[in-house]
Amino acid sequence: MRLIDISSPVDASLFEPDPVEHRILTPAEGARHMSEEMLTHLGIEFSPDELPDQEFLSLDTLTLTTHTGTHVDAPSHYGTRASYGVPRNIDEMPLDWFYRAAVVLDLTDAEVGAVGADRIEKALVLADYTPDPLDIVLLHTGASRWAGTQRYFTHFTGIDDTAVHLLLDMGVRVIGTDAFSLDAPFGNMIERYRESGDRSVLWPAHFVGREREYCQIERLANLEQLPRPHGFSVACFPVKIAGAGAGWARAVAIVDG
User: Fold this and answer.
1) Which residues are CB-neighbours of 51 under 8 A, at least 6 positions away?
2) What is 3-10+66-255's CATH superfamily?
3) Which Gene3D superfamilies does the entry link to (predicted)?
4) Where are the domains of the chain?
C-alpha cells in the first residue's frame, strides 16, 4: 500500500489573500505560559523552575480562515437556505463521504475559466471510468504548481453548474480540485458577468449546493503523482469544527500495489 499526500500546507510564509498568522511559543515560553494559565484558571501554583531546563512544551497559535490550505466545503458554505432543507455544517457531514474510491480527471489542457459537462464527459472517457455512487472525483488542473503565489488565486480552471450536475447525477457527493476554487477565478467570472449581465456565471458550481447537497475539496496538491486515473481511494476527513462552513483536511490517496 502506498500513501500519497495530496494536501497543500498551511504556511504563513506563503501568499494568501487572507494572511495566516502563526505564533510559536518555544518550550521555555510554553512553560511560563502554562504556569500563568494554571494559576489564573485552576488556582494551582507551579513554577517553571521545577521543570528540566525550565522548559515545558511548545505551543502554536494560528489565525486563519477555514479555507486556507486543503479544506472541505460544507453545504452551509453555499448559503443559508437550500431547496432540500437546512444546509449542514462541516461537523454534521457523514464520514463515509470522505473515504472512498476515487478517480482523477485530467484538465491540465483547459484554459483559464470554467469548463462544462462536455469536458468532464470527455475526461471520464479518457480515464476509462464511470463513477459509482459516492466515488470521489478529483480534478487535476495543474494549478497547484503556482501555490504560494498570487497567480494561484487568479489563473486556474474551474467547472460550471452543468459539470457539477453531471457528477451529482452519477451519485458523486465529493468533488475535489487542485485549484483555489471549484469555480472559475473571480476576475474571469466578474468580467463575463459585466459583459453579459447574466448572474448565472457568478459562482455557479458553488451555488449548485443550494439545490443539491454536496461537498467540495479545494486546494489539493500533487495530483500528478497519482500513478493511474483510478484504482485508488482517497481519505479526506474534515476537521470537526462545530457550526463551520468548512474544515481543513489532510487528504491522502491510498494506492494498492
Assistant:
1) 31
2) Putative cyclase (3.50.30.50)
3) Putative cyclase (3.50.30.50)
4) 3-10+66-255, 21-63
Do the Cβ atoms of 158 and 116 come closer than 8 Å? no
Unique residue bearing C-alpha cell 459516492: 134
What is the bridge-based pairing of β-strands 21-25 and 59-63?
antiparallel
Beta pairing partners, 60: 24
Smallest CA-to-CA distance from 157 within 137, 127, 178 is with: 178
In this predicted structure, the answer to whether residue 38 has a pLDDT above a threshold of 90 is yes
Compute the radius of gyration of the chain from its Cα atoms. 21
Closest CA to 114 of 161, 146, 78, 67: 161
Closest CA to 142 of 234, 229, 221, 253: 221
- Determine the Cα–Cα distance for residues 84 and 87; give it in Å rounded to an integer: 8
* CA gap 19, 23 in Å, rounded: 13
pLDDT digits (tens, 9 = 90+) for 201-248: 999 999 999 999 999 999 999 999 999 999 999 999 999 999 999 999
Q: Tell me the C-alpha distance between 107 and 182, whole Å.
A: 12
Closest CA to 95 of 212, 253, 249, 208: 249
The predicted model scores a pTM of 0.95
- List b or e across 223-242, with b for residues whose CB sees 16 or more CB atoms inside 10 angstroms: beebeebbebbbbbbbeeee
Instruction: Give the DSSP H/E element, type plus range, for residue 102.
Output: strand 99-106
The CA distance from 254 to 149, in Å, is 29
